[in-house]
């Protein structure tokens, strides 16, 4: 079975629409599905929609502005009266999410590139004379904010402020996938500005989480409001650092001087896009000294005046514009007032001022850290062999470690490691093989003891990994049901097959021209039969341009994909911008006629009483073993005929796996008992 190698995101397509309507110059293009797509410089506005969807208690723009306005006025008054602010230093941790590339290669960016980004932030936020961040504008200001790479982790242990995780596979990350990674790797957001660097945020340069007001409780998760677990900035790796300062890195052509981070950190401290994210000149960023703009500008076009009711040109030099890095160098005094008001009053911003993250931490004698290597499953594969990486983060030689690991809600298992690791050295631990059902699973692991003593630095010792198992389904066709909500024309969907020249085999989307797609009406049911005569990997994508899914804000829409035998592959509707599902098809012409490309099949599937194992004489297995979803052996026997029958009548309903053996080779197939 082939590995599925492409992904999609709402922002790819939404970005194409919004940018085509407003851009004077096209932004950077990337490719997916063999087609050119636009890269949106910033998706913070879309991200706010996602956060609001997840946490209805999160304040709207209007309510936040009502809360912050008097505080901004107070900050402005203090500035005018020349009451100087104390210059603050914010500890920053960079989480590098990489695909296994060596440090300094592609997405696993070098320390020097990260250090160059810290330098740019300090130049831009301090209006540093003699740097690219200096300006002579009458409204330009020193934000009085410095940044440092964190020198201690949340446990107080010495740190470089750079943490690397091998979690990617080169396919890129959608926003919602990035959000999962953020929750698993984040340092305490009350003490650190977390910046995540991904190999590619599909269709995006980056985004940030906007601050909250002091009265927002939100939905609790692990003792914190739910949005706290993802607070920070996310960037694609080509938008981090300065090519001038560190030329060895890999950079975007136009955004190569570190200003994407300056822009997103501006959002993090409460700034809005300079044009106000509206559709006309009445929109505002709530800063009186930034001229109105009709929309975002690209490139370095000087002399633009998109709102002619005033005598002011568009401020393309502002960090909160979309212009190229080489053209921006201004934060205004009113933008400073907003940032100072947020620093003084907003949770998880004010606490950064008193963080000790910039003070060097301690070195522990006995300290182990843990990482879970990514599980890179082929589409349709269900057997995994997880690997842990144990690193000696202490000063003493590490000779033993007790590690507890757990899959989903199953009982925890203890693994006792022994060996000899010098300080900084690592060892790979292979856990026993696991057979998983289709769907998403969570593998968690933590170090209990090192060198016979309790682990005292849990922050680097507890990790979890999401494992997505696509599932294998035997059928000759798919039935796709799309029930639209009250805004049917916001929904586009498609099914794509790995290996097709044009990829898409069904759907209402026109990938070449979104505007010419087959938009549906409101509250309509559309059923599409999709033949699948080829054994391969498939993916279903559904996109809602209203960013509120199909259920339940605007009606009770849904989607469902079934085999023609009635087995549900995936269904849903309560999502935000996009939802997706990958699955493998074991294509057959009927329950009894096997596609020629296959040598072994199971039928009927789902099975009620009898399951048949069918194989040609040349490839007939010697034995079979049936496992349940927990990996327990349920049945076994010899295969004595080309069609071997197995009595499954007494099996409980659910998903099972048949392991077929011949000589030293094995094949595992999935079936459903119902």
Give the topology, please.
Elements lengths: L9 H13 L6 E4 L2 E4 L5 H11 L6 H20 L7 E11 L12 H16 L18 E5 L12 E5 L8 H11 L7 E6 L7 E3 L11 E2 L2 E2 L7 E4 L22 H10 L64 H13 L22 E5 L10 E2 L2 E6 L5 E10 L5 E9 L4 E5 L3 E2 L3 E12 L2 E2 L7 E8 L2 E4 L1 E7 L7 E7 L6 E4 L17 E7 L4 E9 L6 E2 L2 E2 L1 E6 L4 E5 L5 E10 L12 E4 L6 E6 L7 E5 L5 E6 L4 E5 L6 E9 L2 E9 L1
Parallel strand pairs: 3-4, 3-5, 3-6, 6-10, 21-31
Antiparallel strand pairs: 1-2, 7-10, 8-9, 11-13, 12-17, 13-16, 14-15, 14-18, 18-19, 18-20, 22-25, 22-29, 23-24, 23-26, 26-31, 27-28, 29-30, 32-33, 33-36, 34-35, 34-37, 37-38
Helix pairs in contact: 3-7
Outline the structure in words.
The protein is α+β, with helices and mostly antiparallel strands and 674 residues long. The protein has four domains: 345 residues, Collagenase (Catalytic Domain) (3-Layer(aba) Sandwich), CATH 3.40.390; 100 residues, Immunoglobulins (Immunoglobulin-like); 116 residues, Lipoxygenase-1, CATH 2.60.60; 74 residues, Immunoglobulin-like (Sandwich). It contains seven helices and 38 strands. A hairpin with a 2-residue loop joins strand 27 and strand 28. The radius of gyration is 27 Å and the shape is globular. The N terminus is likely disordered.
